[in-house]
Amino acid sequence: MDTTTAPPPVRPAAHDRARLWALTAATAVAPATWGTTYAVTTEWLPPDRPLLAATARALPAGLLLVAVGRRLPRGVWWWKAAVLGTLNIGAFFALLFVAAYRLPGGVAAVLGAAQPLVVAVLAVPLLGERLRGRTLLLGATGVIGVALVVLGGQARLDAVGVAAGLAGTASMAAGVTLTKRWGRPVPVLAFTGWQLTAGGLVLLPAVLAVEGLPPGVTAGQLGGFVYLGAVGTALAYALWLRGVLALPADRVSFLGLLSPVVAAAVGWALLGQQLGPAQVAGTALALGSLVLAQRPGADARAARPIPAGTAGPPVTAQLPMRPPSSRWTTATPGRG
Question: Per residue in 217-261, pLDDT tens?
């Protein structure tokens, strides 16, 4: 009897490309959802409480995901989770809400379009990647789109709001780059929970010292908090971090351009904000940069093996991780 074992079937390249695009589309849900943050903040959350809004968005969602994930950090991952939580959540959320309170939604969101350029620069020393002209050109085009959206209409610009928006972009870009460098030692839900909890704990003392708790919360405000916590944070960040670890850094950073497009569209459709011809042209440039950044030329590094403990696996090797056991466990420390 012939006992020769047939070689495993080789998946066609088209299948890998389909998985890549499916993962990209799922990751894009996160920045699209974040584009609604500005309308929700200005219309449904308590006024002039950006730190409270950021904390209420992050901490409950983080604790819920930690409970669901049943994994706690161990060793170096305590400080790594704190750093990532501060960059991706704590500092970013605080600056995001300051910008949201001081700027119209579209203006506040489009400031994040500078993120691809910041990620491209940080990826040189942190990920060992070279600075590519294609990424710089598309990133500059996105920035031009930002300028057109910001300056093309009758939007009121506030220096503090603009500074907060740009600082938030830099914080998120640093978080994305370090997430790629360090990878994750646990399933994505637990990993997301660590960062949200760490970021929420960073924000909590500032809330109590600077703003305090509101005297009461209306039903509409409670609904806004629930939406931002469940959809705009827990779900969005789980999808985002999964994509950050599996996709090339430059590719995933360009997905952030969806946030200003959605914010401007929501501001026009629901808040009566005006979109002039220059803003429409800027939106087209931003979307064009996003689409071109997703073309096969941007995928070259996705197929390159990445050392374990340094960054997430390429998308062709990214498989769902086994769910944790019923017991609370601690993560195995990664290399950093």
Answer: 899 999 999 999 999 999 999 999 999 999 888 788 899 888 878
User: Could you tell me if 248 and 318 are in contact, meaning their C-beta atoms sit under 8 angstroms apart?
Assistant: no
In a domain, 329, yes or no: no
CA dihedral 144, 147, 153, 159 (to 10 degrees): 180
Contact 165, 280 (CB under 8 A): no
If you average pLDDT over residues 312-333, what whole number do you get? 33
Cα distance between residue 203 and residue 143, in whole Å: 30
Q: Would 235 be classed as within a structural domain?
A: yes
Domain membership flag for residue 107: yes
Residue 330 sits at φ, ψ, to 5 deg, of -115, 150
The number of distinct structural domains making up the chain is: 1
What single letter denotes the amino acid at residue 321?
M
DSSP 187-236: -HHHHHHHHHHHHHHHHHHHIIIII---S---HHHHHHHHHHHIIIIIIH
- pTM, two decimals, is 0.76
Expressed as residue numbers, the domain containing 119 is 35-299+306-313
Question: Is the pLDDT assigned to residue 10 strictly greater than 60?
Answer: no
What token pair was written down for 146? 């930002």
Tens-place pLDDT, residues 40-49 = 888 888 888 8
Distance in angstroms (rounded) separating the CA atoms of residues 110 and 150 = 8
Dist. CA 159–CA 42, nearest whole Å = 18
26, part of any domain: no
In the chain, where does DSSP find H-type helix?
Answer: 13-34, 37-44, 50-69, 77-85, 91-102, 105-110, 115-127, 133-152, 159-182, 188-206, 219-229, 236-246, 249-254, 258-270, 277-293
Check if the beta carbon of residue 85 is closer than 8 Å to that of residue 204. Answer: no
What's the rounded Cα separation, in Å, for the pair 242 and 27? Answer: 7
Tokens of 150: 């910001």
Q: Using the 8-state DSSP alphabet, how is residue 70 labeled? A: T
Contact (CB, 8 A) for 96 and 42 = no
